[in-house]
Amino acid sequence: MELTTDLRRAICSLFEVHQDEAGVQRIVTPMQYSGSGDHIVVRVRPRDEHFEVDENGEACLYASMADGDVDSEAVKRWVEELSESGAVQMRDDEVLGAKAVDERLIPILIFRVAEAAQQLYALATSRPPRKVSEFKAAVARSVSDAVAGTGYEHAVDVPLPIAGNFVADHVVEAPVPLIVIVATGIQRLLEAELIHMRYQVEKRSAFVVAAVESQKAVGPKQFERANYYTDKTVTFSRADFSSLIRGRLSG
Predict the structure, then answer these.
(1) CATH of the domain at 234
(2) Which superkingdom heads the taxonomic lineage of this protein's source (predicted)?
(3) I need a labelling partner for 137 at 20 to 30 A (CA). Which of 55, 118, 129, 223 fits?
(4) Is residue 94 located within the same domain as residue 184?
(5) pLDDT in tens, the chain (251 residues)
(6) CA distances (Å), 72 to each of 34, 101, 115, 124, in order?
């Protein structure tokens, strides 16, 4: 059988190369983050004496959004092995990257970075899923305990009267409505931030609280950020959370 396809052209056509600002080349590869449908994107950034090839931290971001654990022991071991075995390194800002002084090395480094991004995502999302239903049930019990005896109505899974079709896990109809978002992952935590923003933009009164199972569940950086973009974001403890809700309702 004779091969009639121009393989070089066919393979090259699978990659999209875009020119961004400051001389940055953005390469959309045919490789994908497993199960997400998102293509792995690699950037080549010119520096004074070398080129940086990196994935812009998207592997960690997408893994966190998929409820993965980028701080798991398996990921930590993989990062150690990665730093010992090749040119690709995990930086302190959770970006996978490599440096090239010789621009002829850039194509192979694009593949190496994309490969590492794919491996990181797969490792971070392969762990057994957290028992989300148990966490949500624990928060529900905590809110119910706090509201009991206050005279305020407490509703669950409430569509909110703001743009965006958002739904709150709990709403307590106090003079200033108390909105509780059970942030089971980074995506839900981002929704809490958007809910808080929409209430401010629409000049509606509400106090938005986000509860996370642990900082690790959403990432320490995202947890810190959320406290600036919600009224309160806390790691969940049943007793402490009930006290927080009671204090807010009695204040």
Answers:
(1) 3.40.1350
(2) Bacteria
(3) 223
(4) no
(5) 566 567 778 888 888 999 999 899 999 999 998 877 889 999 999 999 999 999 999 999 999 888 788 888 888 889 988 888 778 999 999 999 999 999 999 999 999 999 999 999 998 887 555 556 788 999 999 999 999 989 999 999 999 999 988 999 999 999 999 999 999 888 899 999 999 999 999 999 999 999 999 887 788 888 998 999 999 999 999 889 999 999 999 86
(6) 18, 33, 19, 7
